[in-house]
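Example record

The entry below shows one chain as it appears in the dataset: sequence first, then structure tokens.
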Amino acid sequence: MPTSFLGTGWSFPPSFDNISGETAMLSDHADVESSLAVLLSTRPGERVMLPSYGCALDELVFESLTTTFKAYIKDLVKTAILFHEPRIRLNGISLDDSGESEGRILIIVDYTVKRTNSRANYVFPFYKNEGSEVR
């Protein structure tokens, strides 16, 4: 099993090798990015032992894209990351609403990994239309 000072965890979605019986694992920056994807796509209350874990973005699917709505999305993401992802320092959150007519808003999270002092960006696609094709 790989070890890492940033952590090692299961890939998401979990996948298993039928031959070796091992679980696919992620380490370092890939584990941090996967953790962000899970955090932003989890509804608070879904995790039995961590009821406050997650980000309530799914509740905003039918909201109008106003300045207040954009600020609220940024605040939800910021709060979720500050409470549940201690490995990173949040530098900023921005929204790319150029795909709004297709029902897609990109949430861009700019962060620094504390242990390595390396900057990275994570782009989370938020789909405002129910049943949108996720790629």
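Notes for this example: Residues 61 and 128 are 5 Å apart (CA to CA). The first strand starts at residue 8 and ends at 10.
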